[in-house]
Amino acid sequence: MSITSAEKATQLFTTFVLDGHLFGVEVESVQEVIRYQEMTRIPLATDAVGGLINLRGQVITALDLRRRLGMPDRQEGRDPMNVVVRTEDGAVSLLVDEIGAVIETRTAQFEPPPDTVTAKAKDLIRGAYKLENTLLLALDVSRAVEV
Amino acid sequence: MPAWGDDPELLATFRAEVEERLASLQSGLLALETHQSPRQVITVLFRDAHTVKGSARMLGLEGVLHVAHNMEDLLGALRDGRFAVRKDHVDLLLAACDGIARALPGEAALDDAALTPLVEALVAAVAGADPVSVPTFAVAPVPDQPTPAEAEVPRQSSVRVAASKVYDLLDAVGEADLGARRVEQTTGTLLSLAAEQARWAGVLRQATHRHAATLPPDVALALHRLVGAGDELSGTVRNLRELVEGHRGGMALVRDGAMGLAMVPVRRVFAALPRIVRDVAQATGKDVVLETSGEEVELDKQVLDGVADALKHLVINAVDHGCELPLDRVAAGKPPQAVVTVSARSVGGTVVIEVTDDGAGIDEDAVRDKAVRLGLLAPDTTATGAALLRLLYTPSFSTSETVTETSGRGVGLDVVRDAVEELGGSVEIRSDTGAGTAFVLTLPVTLGVLRCLIARVGHERYAVPVPGVVESLSLRDAELHTMAGAPFVLRHGVSVPLLDLSAALGLTRGAGEAPRAALIVRHASGSQVAWAVDRLEGESELVVKDLGAFLGRVPYVAGATIDGDGSVICLLDLRELADRAVGGAGFLAAADAAEPRKATAVPGVKRPRVLVVEDSIGVRELERVILEGAGYLVETAVDGLDGASRLRDEPADLVLSDVEMPGMDGFDLTRTIRRTKGWENVPVVIMTSRGEDHARQAGLDAGCSAYLLKNEFDQEQLVSTVRRLVGR
């Protein structure tokens, strides 16, 4: 069976929801996805840092992606999920509202970031993939974790 | 003759060190041509070359010693900007690295004569040759392979393992230890659940007993089995608890054993010192004997390795700079032979290593002159004591007038301090004119485990490393007083400002809760502050976790650890936090002072600038808050010296100064201001606790404009005095 070059240019994304928007990070950079963990607040740290979590004996920093992206805070009583990603500085957890499916995208679907997202968010996403009935915003992990 | 031929282990150690430094030099040199700030790179290269030189001396490799010395010269010239870095310089320095690598003891090692062209080329380069000729050497053998020297080490009844394996093991043991504590807790929970289950099964059996005849047989059987299984469950869980408890002791043995693997006696470094002392003494015409004690004291290998170079620098300095020539000693009424003492002792969770000499002590006049020449101090400086000695840590500061092969180029004290602080330790210099100098290094025993106090603040718990805490106290027993609304705690006759940790960390305290304890720490300027916490929950040994790069941006959170219940606890650096407690926000109950009455800034009018010079952080911040509240721009300085240098940066409309401060005191500062062109008319307000008539007179003689007393301290009076003198 022959594979055309267009079909080869695909990328798998782990997706998640933040304030009603569908976001994704490349599956290769995702270490694991875990449910809500108790967090320890870091005093005086910037508010985009949610706290520290104990990931099987490793202490890792959890980033509040809503705050990082300039979105309103999560409703009281709704616990975030952790998407643990690998970065140059070690593992970091991204706090998200809900986890979505793993989605395969094609380069052909790619377009620049839409105007519907906040200015802060626009800086931190690489672009969008036009899916059938929604847009998948590709998060730039290395910039998102630069807090 | 190879100096360490009879001690293969030391030979291998030094050799490994040289190879490591050569690797560092090579990668640094390669980065040099393209680096944004070559100066930084050169500073590191210079230290590397210096270390190679030191090790070459250890190994008795004269040729390598000369090459390294001349590399240092060339790097020094490049560092000082005598000429721009050219490609041929880099090539030559790389060739020098290759030459050194090839000259290390081993098969087919180059002899000293073979290195002569290198030395000549380096000398020519320093003299300004352009271009310089670059002798070539074959690339050094791959350092990963066991070197012949290592292979010769006789195998005794010991196992050599890579240090990384030991540290991996320590990490694993730390994790296992935490895991074991969690198992223990879970077992406790299981035990009470099993008891609960057995109790209800018993109740059920009692209740159905009366109706035994009418029960369907399968229900009766299920009930019987349920009760039996319940009993068995309780028994098994009790066994489990015994097993877990028995395991606890075993775990402790494993933990202690694993930690012991990483511990090495300081002898490993002390052993090299006699040779250093002998060689340096010989080269400088001195007669010095080395005395060592506490060689058996053990330290984590990482800590000892981290401090080994620093220790060697200090010993070289002690002989080269500290000890006098025999004739001078006799003239000073001392025995001709000088004594350098290196001692180690365990103190709590730390190891203290002291390097002392019985020489002339540090010549403060020479330090002051040199500092003035380097532009570090004003020409009319009167700095003395600790404030002056601090300058010795400045890179490229050395009081030795001649460059020698042993030391005296300013590589040294800055390296020493950096190395020690990197390990979480501290260095102190004590000098006694005529009687000698002492360098005191306080080091943690190990890097992985830290003894910490656990403090509760609001709903949060924080760990505070014990080595940084001067003392902890109960606020109920402590003597408290206030000055202008700000609380102070009286300890051993000293007023220590009491800061609220909860406020400093931006936490809110519940209604009716009050702090019950405090931790006293000493911060950068040497003065103490007391941090009020809700309560102390004891001390424990914690495995410190690396937090990656994220927390690097919150400098007062030094790390984190995981508690027995699995929760994460932040490690606070209270010293750092004290330095950062700004604007009085951290003052406990200092409502008046902490709420600056914001003066409405008049557009177009520049706010008058006040310089506050005060060594106590508490008083300093208090004065700052009050003056800022009154509408002034406030700059602060920690002592007279610092104050004078702030004035040079930017003139002030008024100076408010304490009297007693380390280094330059308030009267000296006042005199300096009165004598300095352009500053003569700046009003100086002295704020002191010295109310005696003669002190007041001394202040007025020095030229102060107003003399206020701290014990009569009054916010209104301070502000009105400043207003009167500034004129607005």
Describe this structure in words.
The complex is a heterodimer of chains A (147) and B (728). With 147 residues, chain A is mainly beta. Chain A has one domain: CheA-289, Domain 4 (OB fold (Dihydrolipoamide Acetyltransferase, E2P), Beta Barrel), CATH 2.40.50. Chain A is 12% helix and 48% strand. The N terminus of chain A is likely disordered. By secondary structure, chain B is an alpha/beta fold. Chain B folds into 5 domains: 144 residues, Up-down Bundle (Four Helix Bundle (Hemerythrin (Met), subunit A)); 102 residues; 168 residues, Histidine kinase-like ATPase, C-terminal domain (Heat Shock Protein 90); 132 residues, SH3 type barrels, CATH 2.30.30; 130 residues, Response regulator (Rossmann fold, 3-Layer(aba) Sandwich), CATH 3.40.50.2300. Chains A and B meet through strand 4, strand 5 and strand 7 of A and helix 7, strand 17 and strand 18 of B.
